[in-house]
Amino acid sequence: DGGITQSPKYLFRKEGQNVTLSCEQNLNHDAMYWYRQDPGQGLRLIYYSQIVNDFQKGDIAEGYSVSREKKESFPLTVTSAQKNPTAFYLCAIKDRGRSTDTQYFGPGTRLTVL
Amino acid sequence: SQELEQSPQSLIVQEGKNLTINCTSSKTLYGLYWYKQKYGEGLIFLMMLQKGGEEKSHEKITAKLDEKKQQSSLHITASQPSHAGIYLCGADIVGNTGKLIFGQGTTLQVKP
After folding, report:
1. Rounded CA gap, A81 and A15, in Å?
2. Tens digit of pLDDT for each residue in B1-56?
C-alpha cells in the first residue's frame, strides 16, 4: 500500500547492537502491526498497537521493543537479546472498512546480522 | 504445528493451466485473507472472505470459504507469468482483534 513506508529497505547489524526499523503511515489508521517473515514459516506477529500510547505483545515479542508516541509512526527496535534477528520485517495497518477490516502491508525491511 | 496449513508448498504450472491452492485450519475462521507477495517485497491484498460459503473473484482469481469456515481455496484460471509469486493465506481466529496468523505460503511458478 502506497501510504505505508518502511525504512531502510536493507539493514545490516553487527551482533550485540540494537537497531530500529521505521514504519510510517499517512492513512490516519489507528491500528498498526509488526510481523516477522522467515523462509518456510509464513508471517509471525511481533507487536501490535490499536491506539496511540498503547501496544500489546504478539506471539514472538521476546527481544523486540516498540513505541507508539504518534499515530503515524510505529518503530520497532530489535535488541541484542533477540537471538536470531536475521529476517524480513513487515509493518501493516488495519483499515476498518464498512463491513470488514483488512490489513495492508508496507514494502518490508530485510535485516541481516553479520 | 502450524495452525493454518497451506498446500501445496510449491507449484510449477504451464502457462494457461488452472491451479488451486488450499488453506486449512482446525479452528473456525472469523476472517480469511489471501495475499500475494513477490520475493523481497510486501504483501499485496487480494481478497477477504468472512461468511461460510462465500466466494469472491477478481480478474482470473477466485477464492472460496467453506460452509464450516475452516477451509479456503484460491483458484487461478488460465495462469499467466504475471501470476507467479508467493501466495499467503492469513486468518483471524480470535475475532475482531486484528491479530492474524499466516500459512507457510505457496510459491507459484508459471512456465511460459
Report:
1. 10
2. 568 999 999 999 999 999 999 999 988 888 899 999 998 899 999 999 999 999 99
Residue B112 has a CB neighbour count (10 Å cut-off) of 7
Whether residues A43 and B100 touch (CB distance < 8 A) is answered with yes
Please tell me whether residue B90 adopts helix, strand or coil conformation. strand
**Residue that is written with C-alpha cell 503515524 in the block:** A72
- What is the pLDDT averaged over residues A67-88? 95
Of the candidates A48, A105, A110, which has its C-beta nearest B40's C-beta? A110
Q: Which helix (H) or strand (E) holds A65?
A: strand A64-66
Which residues have C-beta within 8 Å of that of residue B10, sequence separation ≥ 6? B106, B107, B108, B109
3-state secondary structure of B83: helix
Residues B86, A37 contacting (CB under 8 angstroms): no
Q: Which three cell numbers stand for residue A85?
A: 534477528
Cα distance from B83 to chain A (closest Cα, Å)? 19
